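ok so I'm stuck.
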Amino acid sequence: MRKPRVLQIFSMYHPEGEKVLREGAEVIRTDRCDIPHLCEAVKGMDGIVLRAPAKITREVIDANPGLKVISGAGVGLDNIDVAYATEKGIPVLHAPSVNKVSTAEHAVTLIMALGKSLISFHDNMKKGDYDSRITISSNELKGKKVGLIGFGNIAQEVAKRLKLGLEMDVTAWVREYKQEKHQIANEIGVHIITNMEEVFRESDFISLHIPLTEQTKYSIDRKFFSIMKPSAYLINTARGAVVNQEDLYNALKDGLIAGAGLDVFDPEPPAKDLPLLSLSNVIVTPHVGGTTVECNYIMSTTVSENIIKVLEGKIPKYIGNPEVLKSKITE
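replied:
not stuck anymore, here's the structure
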């Protein structure tokens, strides 16, 4: 019996994941992601696993009527046309939640670095400016107000570290009240509200934890920056496109807000001349919040095991469109 064939677009996050995938499938690797190439490469494949910046569009899906499964290499699904895959009855897999600790730690690190003026002190000390201890100020974090936009798995981990570890005052915005999240918030000591403007207006730090959807795309814009405290900071470890980057640049340049910590951009990688990168009050990292060694191992092996399960007709651990299970997976 032949092994199922899987198109792997770019490397996975950890070599162990690739090893697991090769044990259960014949893997064909490509490092190109232009749509015409993928439409050719996908022919004869049973599955696809990909990581950004590759995208699986309806054109790619239509190029292979026999496609059985599509999987992101990590957490997000915004680079896959999930709705069309669902329409075609194709399971779309990912590995949600496995990066929650790593990403939460990164968000907290950015908050601490901004509040403590860490990069400014570092840069000045490298230049021999010891007197920067007098000219640059930093803040105590205890008691400062943090606003979490979203209260999913990652935001909850952030809340634990900020509230219980740093004794900060944490409020989380949610689109609608749900008892389960209320219970978690009460256990941690987090306030839950549905008024996003109030969170932006009152917080010293805003940390974004919302998915990228048609509703959230570019939704964090000048309207929100204009009501933030001039001393407040924005942290984004979610998705770059939930923020209007031009509005953020202007807000930072004009002093509407004090600074920002950004791990994600739109597009990725960002242009080298992106104006945001030139600002001294912005800390930037290359979308590494959820890519620690530990997280990469778990994420990659989970993804590979899930793909093999589907190709064997079994139920995967994580699926982004569970409604296709009844028609496609029997056991």
